[in-house]
Amino acid sequence: MRVYVALAAKRHDVPADVLSRARTLIETAFPVPADVIRAREWHGRGVSLLAWTNEPDDTRQPPLISEHGGRVIGLNGHLADPADVTRLPGDSVGGCFSAWIARDGEVTASTAVNRVCPVFYAETPDLHVVGSRALLVHLAAQPVDRIEHDVLALQTMIRQGFFLSDETPYKGVTALRPNARLDVRDGRRTISETPLPEAAPPPTSARAKRAAIGELAEALLATVAPLRDLSEPVNLALTGGRDTRILAALLHAARVPFRVTTNGLDTHPDVIIARRIAARLKVEHTVIAPQQTAQKDAVLVEHPLSRAWETLRTCEGMTSAYESIVSYLPYSGRPTMSGQSGETLRAGSLNLLQTDLGDKALLRRITNTFAKDEKMFTAEANEHARELARPWLARPDRLEALDHIYIWYKVGRWQASARAGSLRRGDPVRPFLDNRVVRAALSLDQGWRLSEEVIYDLILRFAPQLRDVPIEGKPWRFAAGMTKRWFWSRLPAGHMPTAKTGGGWSWRTSPGPALTDILRRQVLGNLDALTPVVNPDEVRALFADPVVRKPAQAWHLYTVSTLLTGLYPGKGPEGLEQITVSRPDPAR
């Protein structure tokens, strides 16, 4: 993982005490042990670029800070081809990254098409602060060690568990938008942004479809081509769904050595289907079962306070503790891959939630995304949510609006903060987050991508032997209702649902009374901290039953409550016992 902060003085040079403070703050803002952090710095006229990493050496390219043609360049994330560092910032560069460029009197920070490697910025009377960690930017811009939260901005965290805006939990700190560039020259800041790619009309012939899908296929193959020369196989986290299946097929087609692992019980659909995929592709498959009690009628989970502390530390208050964040392990160069954000190839998760594609239904989806559960919130919080929704509601193409909301926020805010956990362990390859892949996908008609014909065709191109392996959950959208299949057809053999089993139970969605009580006591015991944005009576009603009815929202409230009451920064909680969560029906 790499962390950057650029400091640009509005007058003269960056003060020495500001630099000293930034160096000290890194131990708070970088969620790894202090003894594994390495630093590099560059200082020019009125500008300083500071960088840190937990990478053990300088073998990963490009370097943490490098000089090219009179410019100093830092790269947060990775490039498909490290030699492309000289082309930054550039729209056509492949990889998953944000770029940091400095020279005397100038600083530039830029995001890629999905801003999954974020850039945050703040301003003081004397200084511009631009960094890759929001808390670091906030504290570096503060004259003293005091955190000021933007409580109104946190209303979206309680609704959805991540940010549906460019706001952060910290006053004065803003996230740079996708496909955007921030420049500071001689103390003056400008921000420019390029709209996301516009989708072409749907292809009208089989030949045109093949050509369009071919461009996406080539972009995907380019992301994994460098992995052929690695000294060990790629480890792919494989499930029974669509997105990791594409990656398994992609690695197979690219002749990249790989193995697969699946988390779950033997009876879970993910495990059952992943075994079949691994067998068809002739790759090694490992199943990792969750920890269980001896009777296997319950699971042991960490105390919510420990979980919240680690989530706040890693995700800086921009992802709910409801989510499972990858815990810290020492940095490893071993190649790993997962299907995160694969919905990009299917017009985004918000469109995938729709069964009714009528205009009113899509407008309702946009509204509910920003302003759901209005009774829970204050009038000010609801008006703020509606204001955030307005520019998206004004877009004439509803499918495009929902597609782009997914890229801007579900990838660019939720995934951007949540993936910090895995980045501490290494730099995983994420083909669905690659700048060129995302651009190629967004250039395809949303309705066509939503039909899932695009990704099904990709799988057949890469690994036709997976054609008849069932998909977990619902059948392929484009094949729904089709009852006939001819031998020359490329359609799937009927529906491919997978029967749910007892292994599909999750303690997060069925928390039980003991875990509910811990969440309840934290939220209701500190309700004053939340009252600027929530209705106290509605919060009490949420926790009225022995087992909370909306576990996700309970966790969102719990996360924001612990943030506002100062759980982090600070020492992690100690001596907390694990919680036993029983299955609702152990006999299943």
Automatic annotation (TrEMBL):
Domain of life of the source: Bacteria
Stated name of the protein: Asparagine synthetase domain-containing protein
Alphabetical GO biological process terms: asparagine biosynthetic process
Classification of source organism: Bacteria, Bacillati, Actinomycetota, Actinomycetes, Streptosporangiales
Any Pfam family hit: Asn_synthase
Gene3D superfamilies named among the record's database cross-references: HUPs (3.40.50.620)
SUPFAM superfamilies recorded: Adenine nucleotide alpha hydrolases-like, N-terminal nucleophile aminohydrolases (Ntn hydrolases)
UniProt source species: Nonomuraea deserti
Asparagine synthetase domain location: 216-451
Molecular function, one GO term: asparagine synthase (glutamine-hydrolyzing) activity
Matches recorded under InterPro entries: Asn_synthase, Ntn_hydrolases_N, Rossmann-like_a/b/a_fold
